[in-house]
Write a structure and sequence with these properties.
This protein has one domain. The chain contains 1 helix and no strands. The longest helix has 113 residues.
């Protein structure tokens, strides 16, 4: 009878120990689950931040492309304006030479008339 009670007592202690271990394991699982959820949330935040950064970078690339196109257009306009200015200079130089020739011709006529 004493042996049976001792065994029952030992079995009860063993069962209590198992129950405590199960409870401890369940608590660890909850803690790990909570930690996993926090990590998943942080990962989602980082992924969102990365997506926003990629989007901002793409917008910057588009803006740089627009600015490059604008600069190319301005450069083309400047080249066209310089070509037009060169044409005007050539015309002005030709006109100045023509005027100088006319002045010389008039001076020559005046010199002949004065003789």
């Amino acid at each position: 009878d004493e042996g049976l009670r001792a065994r029952e007592h030992a079995l009860g202690a063993h069962e209590r120990g198992l129950a405590e271990r199960e409870e401890s394991l369940a608590e660890r699982e909850r803690e790990h689950g909570d930690a996993l959820q926090r990590l998943k949330a942080r990962l989602a935040e980082h992924e969102q931040e990365q997506a926003r950064a990629v989007e901002a970078l793409e917008e910057m690339r588009k803006e740089v492309s627009r600015q490059e196109q604008d600069a190319a257009s301005r450069a083309q306009s400047l080249r066209e304006a310089e070509a037009s200015l060169d044409e005007e200079r050539s015309r002005a130089a030709a006109e100045a030479a023509h005027c100088a020739n006319r002045v010389r011709a008039l001076a020559d006529r005046e010199a002949l008339a004065a003789q």
